[in-house]
Amino acid sequence: MTSTAWGVGLLSGAPFGTLTGIRTGFVEHSVLGGLVVGLLGGAIFGAVMGLVFGRRLIGAVQDLSPPDRTTVMRAVRKGQAVPERRLAPAVIDYAESLRQESRRPLETKGGNRLVLGALVVLSAGLAIAEGLGGDWIGAAGHSMLTVLWLVLVLLSPPLA
Description:
Layout: H1 3-28, H2 31-56, H3 66-78, H4 88-102, H5 111-132, H6 136-155
Protein backbone atom coordinates (compact mmCIF):
# COMPACT_ATOMS: atom_id res chain seq x y z
CA MET A 1 0.00 0.00 0.00
CA THR A 2 1.15 3.53 -0.73
CA SER A 3 1.46 6.20 1.93
CA THR A 4 -1.68 7.83 0.53
CA ALA A 5 -3.60 4.58 0.94
CA TRP A 6 -2.27 4.29 4.50
CA GLY A 7 -3.48 7.84 5.16
CA VAL A 8 -6.94 7.04 3.81
CA GLY A 9 -7.01 3.89 5.94
CA LEU A 10 -6.07 5.84 9.06
CA LEU A 11 -8.52 8.68 8.36
CA SER A 12 -11.40 6.29 7.77
CA GLY A 13 -10.51 3.64 10.37
CA ALA A 14 -9.98 6.05 13.26
CA PRO A 15 -13.50 7.57 13.30
CA PHE A 16 -15.09 4.17 12.65
CA GLY A 17 -13.12 2.55 15.46
CA THR A 18 -13.78 5.45 17.82
CA LEU A 19 -17.53 5.45 17.22
CA THR A 20 -17.76 1.67 17.37
CA GLY A 21 -15.68 1.53 20.55
CA ILE A 22 -17.71 4.26 22.27
CA ARG A 23 -20.97 2.62 21.34
CA THR A 24 -19.82 -0.84 22.47
CA GLY A 25 -18.42 0.58 25.68
CA PHE A 26 -21.69 2.28 26.58
CA VAL A 27 -24.04 -0.48 25.47
CA GLU A 28 -22.04 -3.33 27.01
CA HIS A 29 -20.95 -1.21 30.00
CA SER A 30 -17.40 -2.38 29.45
CA VAL A 31 -14.52 -0.01 28.84
CA LEU A 32 -12.21 -2.91 27.97
CA GLY A 33 -14.74 -4.35 25.52
CA GLY A 34 -15.17 -0.94 23.91
CA LEU A 35 -11.41 -0.55 23.52
CA VAL A 36 -10.98 -4.00 21.98
CA VAL A 37 -13.92 -3.62 19.58
CA GLY A 38 -12.89 -0.07 18.67
CA LEU A 39 -9.26 -0.94 17.98
CA LEU A 40 -10.03 -4.12 16.03
CA GLY A 41 -12.96 -2.62 14.14
CA GLY A 42 -11.03 0.53 13.26
CA ALA A 43 -7.97 -1.45 12.15
CA ILE A 44 -9.99 -3.81 9.95
CA PHE A 45 -12.16 -1.06 8.46
CA GLY A 46 -9.14 1.19 7.86
CA ALA A 47 -7.17 -1.64 6.23
CA VAL A 48 -10.02 -2.45 3.86
CA MET A 49 -10.53 1.22 2.95
CA GLY A 50 -6.79 1.67 2.38
CA LEU A 51 -6.66 -1.36 0.09
CA VAL A 52 -9.70 -0.18 -1.85
CA PHE A 53 -8.20 3.30 -2.27
CA GLY A 54 -4.79 1.88 -3.15
CA ARG A 55 -6.35 -0.01 -6.05
CA ARG A 56 -7.79 3.25 -7.34
CA LEU A 57 -4.30 4.67 -7.92
CA ILE A 58 -3.85 3.72 -11.53
CA GLY A 59 -1.01 3.88 -13.97
CA ALA A 60 2.47 5.16 -13.24
CA VAL A 61 1.43 7.19 -10.18
CA GLN A 62 1.48 4.04 -8.04
CA ASP A 63 5.27 3.95 -8.13
CA LEU A 64 5.89 7.65 -7.46
CA SER A 65 6.72 9.32 -4.17
CA PRO A 66 3.78 11.17 -2.58
CA PRO A 67 4.97 14.68 -3.65
CA ASP A 68 5.62 13.49 -7.22
CA ARG A 69 2.27 11.67 -7.29
CA THR A 70 0.50 14.85 -6.21
CA THR A 71 2.34 16.88 -8.84
CA VAL A 72 1.48 14.44 -11.64
CA MET A 73 -2.17 14.08 -10.62
CA ARG A 74 -2.60 17.85 -10.27
CA ALA A 75 -0.98 18.46 -13.68
CA VAL A 76 -3.28 15.98 -15.39
CA ARG A 77 -6.47 17.06 -13.66
CA LYS A 78 -5.87 20.80 -14.14
CA GLY A 79 -4.33 20.47 -17.61
CA GLN A 80 -1.13 22.20 -16.53
CA ALA A 81 2.43 21.55 -17.60
CA VAL A 82 4.46 19.39 -15.25
CA PRO A 83 7.32 21.37 -13.67
CA GLU A 84 9.92 18.60 -13.97
CA ARG A 85 10.77 16.87 -17.23
CA ARG A 86 11.38 13.50 -15.52
CA LEU A 87 7.67 13.35 -14.57
CA ALA A 88 6.45 13.74 -18.17
CA PRO A 89 6.17 9.97 -18.86
CA ALA A 90 4.15 9.54 -15.66
CA VAL A 91 1.82 12.38 -16.73
CA ILE A 92 1.22 10.74 -20.10
CA ASP A 93 0.65 7.31 -18.54
CA TYR A 94 -1.69 8.66 -15.87
CA ALA A 95 -3.71 10.66 -18.41
CA GLU A 96 -4.07 7.56 -20.61
CA SER A 97 -5.07 5.46 -17.58
CA LEU A 98 -7.75 7.99 -16.64
CA ARG A 99 -9.06 8.01 -20.19
CA GLN A 100 -9.32 4.22 -20.20
CA GLU A 101 -10.91 4.29 -16.75
CA SER A 102 -13.60 6.67 -18.01
CA ARG A 103 -14.55 4.13 -20.70
CA ARG A 104 -15.54 1.46 -18.17
CA PRO A 105 -19.10 0.16 -18.48
CA LEU A 106 -21.69 2.39 -16.84
CA GLU A 107 -22.80 -0.28 -14.35
CA THR A 108 -19.41 -0.24 -12.61
CA LYS A 109 -19.23 3.55 -12.31
CA GLY A 110 -20.55 4.99 -9.10
CA GLY A 111 -20.94 1.59 -7.46
CA ASN A 112 -19.30 2.96 -4.33
CA ARG A 113 -21.83 5.78 -4.24
CA LEU A 114 -24.71 3.30 -4.33
CA VAL A 115 -23.22 1.20 -1.52
CA LEU A 116 -22.51 4.29 0.59
CA GLY A 117 -26.04 5.56 -0.10
CA ALA A 118 -27.43 2.27 1.15
CA LEU A 119 -25.30 2.65 4.29
CA VAL A 120 -26.73 6.15 4.83
CA VAL A 121 -30.27 4.78 4.66
CA LEU A 122 -29.43 1.80 6.88
CA SER A 123 -27.65 3.82 9.58
CA ALA A 124 -30.36 6.51 9.53
CA GLY A 125 -33.00 3.81 9.96
CA LEU A 126 -31.07 2.30 12.86
CA ALA A 127 -30.69 5.73 14.46
CA ILE A 128 -34.43 6.33 14.24
CA ALA A 129 -35.28 2.84 15.51
CA GLU A 130 -32.91 3.14 18.46
CA GLY A 131 -34.20 6.63 19.26
CA LEU A 132 -37.78 5.40 19.25
CA GLY A 133 -36.71 2.47 21.42
CA GLY A 134 -35.18 4.80 24.00
CA ASP A 135 -31.52 3.98 23.31
CA TRP A 136 -30.29 7.56 22.89
CA ILE A 137 -26.62 6.58 22.94
CA GLY A 138 -27.14 4.10 20.10
CA ALA A 139 -29.23 6.68 18.23
CA ALA A 140 -26.46 9.26 18.62
CA GLY A 141 -23.83 6.79 17.42
CA HIS A 142 -25.81 5.81 14.34
CA SER A 143 -26.58 9.47 13.66
CA MET A 144 -22.84 10.20 13.62
CA LEU A 145 -22.30 7.24 11.29
CA THR A 146 -25.08 8.55 9.05
CA VAL A 147 -23.27 11.88 8.76
CA LEU A 148 -19.97 10.11 8.03
CA TRP A 149 -21.54 7.97 5.28
CA LEU A 150 -23.30 11.02 3.83
CA VAL A 151 -20.02 12.94 3.60
CA LEU A 152 -18.43 9.96 1.85
CA VAL A 153 -21.37 9.80 -0.60
CA LEU A 154 -20.90 13.48 -1.42
CA LEU A 155 -17.16 12.96 -1.95
CA SER A 156 -17.54 9.87 -4.16
CA PRO A 157 -17.82 10.14 -7.97
CA PRO A 158 -21.32 10.47 -9.46
CA LEU A 159 -23.03 7.68 -11.35
CA ALA A 160 -23.01 9.25 -14.80
